[in-house]
Write a structure and sequence with these properties.
This protein is mainly alpha-helical. It is built from 13 helices and no strands. Helix 1 crosses helix 2, helix 3 crosses helix 7 and helix 10 runs parallel beside helix 12. The radius of gyration is 18 Å and the shape is globular.
Length: 292
Amino acid sequence: MIAFNTISDLVRLADEKAVLIHDIVLAKEQHDAQRPRTALLADMARNWEVMKASVQRGIENEAHSASGLTGGDAEKLYAHRTEGYLGEIALRTAAYAVGVSEVNATMGRIVACPTAGSCGIMPAVLCAAQEQRGYADDAIVLALFTAAGIGMVIDQNASIAGAEGGCQAECGTAAGMAAAALVELAGGTPQDIANACALAIKNLLGLACDPVAGLVEVPCVKRNGFCAVHATLAADMTLAGIRSVIPCDDVIAAMDAIGRSMPAAIRETAEGGLAATERGRALAAQIYPKHS
């Protein structure tokens, strides 16, 4: 039986067995679910197909959510991708992430990875990387297992829920997972994967979960776009040889401590942050007039 509770456990096991992190995660899943590797790979491949479909729908979507708060921004950003400061790949990545989050807001089909509120980050970075580097679907499916292992550890040692740890727990975790997957695809070592995760999460520590009117729309949709680019930069920093001074498990512990110390007002209750601004309260009253 393979068991891991920390990122350092994942790295150590992969190094000891001379395999990649996705092999460790798959072996654990085979044992826990009592299912063959082929079945698990097939399930993840279906998830990947849903992710790709949500990206495509997202950049074509002109529909607005029922609240009217979101919709059509991914299409605008995608159209701007060759004209912006950041460059075509970064803007495409951001557009994909915004698009998938808009699909979620309009009740479309997405993969919660790790949550619906952060659903755009993983599909965005992986679709953009596939288009840029030509990665095979099979390789991305394996990288998704690596990302899943990262998410499992964070869930055990901190939280992936905005209601418990703020948006650092949702978008922060998703960014760490995405950065890890990108590094594996680029041939990074297990320690490189841990480093990328640390870089991605530590620079989102303290991020509030403050949805206007309690909806996963503002600021969540655009935040997915920012965090997708953030995750890509964490991967590139790692691949360039830049190391996080604070180890990944310590970063996760810090995220947990920060989440526990956050006031309830900025943990998905829509009582603080942007939700409590004058405009935020006015929008909530407009959307829910009976409760204003």
